[in-house]
Specification:
Elements lengths: L6 H10 L9 H9 L8 H4 L7 H9 L3 H11 L3 H7 L6 H4 L1 H4 L7 H14 L14 E5 L3 H12 L3 E5 L8 H4 L8 H15 L2 E3 L7 H10 L2 E4 L19 E3 H10 L9 E5 L3 H12 L4 E6 L10 H10 L2 E4 L1 E7 L6 E10 L2 E4 L5 E4 L2 E4 L7 H4 L27 E3 L2 H4 L4 H21 L2
Parallel strand pairs: 1-2, 1-4, 2-3, 4-14, 5-13, 6-7, 6-13, 7-8
Antiparallel strand pairs: 9-10, 10-11, 10-12
Bound molecules: flavin-adenine dinucleotide (FAD) and iron/sulfur cluster.
Amino acid sequence: MAETINPHLSQDNERRFPQIKPLMNSSEAYYESSRCLFCYNAPCMLACPTAIDIPLFIRQINNGNLAGAANTIYQSNYLGNTCGKVCPTEVLCEGACVFTKANIRALDIGRLQNYATDNAIATNQKFFSPASPNGRSVAVIGAGPAGIACACELRLAGYLVDVFEAKANPSGLALHGVAPYKITNREALMEVEFLRQQFGFNLIYNKRIATQQDVEELEAKYNAIFLGIGLGNSAEIKIKGEDKGNCVGATEFIEQIKTMPIVEPVAKNVIVLGGGNTAMDAASESVRLGAEKVIVAYRRSENEMKAYYFEYDLAKVTGVVGKFNIAPVEIMGENEVSGVKFIRTETINGKLINIAGSEFVMDCDLVIKATGQLKQTSMMANIKGLNVDVTGRLMIDEETGQTSNPRYFAGGDAVNGGAEVVNAAAGGKLAGKGIHQFLSKLT
Ligand SMILES: Cc1cc2nc3c(=O)[nH]c(=O)nc-3n(C[C@H](O)[C@H](O)[C@H](O)COP(=O)(O)OP(=O)(O)OC[C@H]3O[C@@H](n4cnc5c(N)ncnc54)[C@H](O)[C@@H]3O)c2cc1C
Ligand code: SF4
């Protein structure tokens, strides 16, 4: 197992961040599963990026066949437990449920999924056995959801799989990024360990594949390489004063609160810059870590925010306040942040413009920048013949996950530019199949 995160720290986080979707007990699961209509051509299943047979696993839960239910889930999605906890079910399976369409509360599909898969992990059920070794090997770069899903798929076909991970733990952003009130560190790590035990891929930690030499060594040793490298650090806003203490990137801030000891409160007044889901997470987490006033400041209107409505609602319930049509122009303060200077904006003929003379300053002692993550361009530049699109996303064949360099395949955030765990799980599995297809054709 990985050099695990300090267990006391994990417990601290579990106390600080009670789960918003707690595990069901057996009566709740029986009641909830009894509500399912077991629809034909079930819309919930069609809305799932990994096409889990949702009515089937709900029926299995209802019949008391918990192992069968977990098996149904894992056959479609290797990250079945993590996804049950962190998926935006409100806009995927539960959003598509026929009950939602009738304005009745949707089936609690995510929590039912966890009811089955938690049991499978706790009792160490075995659903898969890898084929005998086929004599070929694949390197997977990145032990996030995409890399782990790809490794599982390849092991089923008998490949030797080595997963190289830059950090000391697996799970990628499911561990280091996802809000701690959605999934605990322990849960994120346990699912990977559950998979490692039954699939038998090798996890090599603290090994960043960073240089051309690293890449060439992998090319010499492995038949194919999967890139599950995700995205990079938080993007800069490129305004004056960004280098001050207490002006931090959202992903770095969240990683720190999930993996390092934290002194509460993190700050008294926090301003989060951005309007996406990461901004909402960072804001909610700041409130939960004792901040008195937390503002999410977005340069466009409330309706134009990229965050899901339920993520914004969740932030507002904790006391976060949204301020719209204000763009940051300078981070104020001596060495440490003392506030942010904004300018008011408006949209005219579809174009966002600053309103001259409307500048004002809002005080704060922590600025969190949540305006996106950088792409891993310098790592990708080490690999010959890789095509990326104008935004820096890796280009692949949608059917196989193969990149423009035939020995390289890719999936997850590095390809889609940043989506959800379930998309990375789907992309990794698809590329695993693509690699098998590609290598099987070679003599
Ligand atoms: C703050 C935040 C909150 C989120 N919340 C949710 C949520 O609630 N629900 C949801 O479904 N999704 C959420 N997401 C998105 C989700 O976490 C990602 O879509 C998903 O983790 C992508 O998986 P991946 O495997 O492609 O990349 P990652 O999870 O980023 O994993 C990539 C892995 O590769 C490693 N790596 C990178 N480069 C190298 C290298 N050169 N050598 C070796 N290892 C390397 C990294 O250390 C990392 O472990 C969130 C994202 C963020 C940033
Ligand atoms: S759409 Fe709703 S009711 Fe129909 S099968 Fe899916 S979960 Fe059950």
